[in-house]
Amino acid sequence: MAKGLDIGTMNIICAEKDGEDVVFMKQRNAFMNLESSDLTKNMLDTSKVLYIEEEDGISLLGEDAFRFATIFEKEARRPMSHGIISPREKEAIPIMKLIVERVLGNPKSPKEVLYISTPAGPVDVDIDVLYHKKTMEALTKGLNYDTHVIDEGLAVIYSELSDYNFTGLGISVGAGMTNVTLAYLASPLMSFSVSRGGDWIDEQVAKSTGLPKEHVTATKEKISKLSKQVQIGSPEGALNVYYDALMTYVIGHINRRLGEITPPKVAFPCAIAGGSSLPQGFFEMFEKKLREAKFKIEVSKIVHAKDPLNAVARGCLIAARTFEEGKHPSKAKQSTQQQSSSKTTQKKE
Ligand SMILES: Nc1ncnc2c1ncn2[C@@H]1O[C@H](COP(=O)(O)OP(=O)(O)O)[C@@H](O)[C@H]1O
Ligand SMILES: [Mg+2]
Question: Which pTM does this prediction carry?
């Protein structure tokens, strides 16, 4: 048995096989402090809420933090920001340990193979990802997993480009970051991130329209389609502007980084994933911009992940199973194809 784990700024998602199905377990990467008197420990225990006790109260974690934040009209806090453990949240590590434990569960066998995703180094901010990567590796090894770490962009390639022997360009547009990897036969030729994603869009739209950020996030997740035909001055109009700006920014950095490497002269398909790629019209807009960019590499087919929110976790699972079977990626095509045709179940605790 093997598992994959996507540790994202907004969502922590575990993927594992259950017979022919791939099962995903998801928790929000969030917490919220409550006064001890707001809810009794007994109530929390009976309703199986994930929490930790602290000196000055209780912290609710994961999905429950989000649920109760609405009830108590408080803001849910995030242990991570811009793709890594937030240096501003001193409780971040113990909180993430509990969320990860809940999502992963115990290993099915001692030293079960686990692949986790990590952001690649950002090219636009002075942030080092090593501490985050090593902490998450140690945390999951502490749970008795045989942990291996891969770049988030490579996980997208594992998930979506098995038909191309894991050669291609993988792009994950998440909450805190956008991650990009160019790989040839599952070996990264170039991996980087930019510190812009869904959160950046929310912040910019909130700043330009004067609306609260939470309101913008909710509007964004509800809009059915990205379209240029919107009312001028509406939040939808501002969202459109910043989605466009984010894509132009990411493509500009891909172009610049491609200029620094000498890739083999082959065609590279491209796969786009991540929660921020969910709105209808996002993929078409990104595809058009990628075609117009005229990269140094030949970009063949451009695909949108079948399940954009779960693609990174799924890719980590495929990498773990490939490793476990001791197969070279180019020979692992058969087993991953079986996975891609199997039913996918979404389970929530
Ligand atoms: N239906 C939707 N439409 C637009 N954005 C969405 C939707 N659902 C989620 N998102 C955005 O996707 C991002 C989370 O995606 P995810 O890939 O899980 O990020 P991360 O891996 O960084 O946690 C958030 O910015 C969230 O607002
Ligand atoms: Mg993610």
Answer: 0.91
Is the pLDDT confidence value at 328 over 80? Answer: no
Pick the residue with more confidence: 347 or 21? 21
Cα separation, 33 vs 57, in Å, equals 7
Which of 276, 280, 307, 314 gets mutated to test ligand 1 (max ligand atoms within 8 A of its CB)?
276
- Give the model's confidence band at 70: pLDDT under 50 very low, under 70 low, under 90 confident, else very high: confident
What is the pLDDT, as a whole number, of residue 334?
42
Quick one: tokens of 51? 């929490």
The ranges of the chain annotated as CATH 3.30.420.40 are: 2-29+78-347
> Which residues, in sequence order, are CB contacts of 205 under 8 Å at separation 6+?
211, 216, 220, 235, 238, 239, 242
Residues with CB under 6 A from ligand 1: 8-11, 174-176, 198-199, 217, 220-221, 274-276, 278-279, 309
Domain range 2-29+78-347, its CATH number among 3.90.226.10, 3.30.420.40, 1.10.10.1150, 3.40.190.10: 3.30.420.40
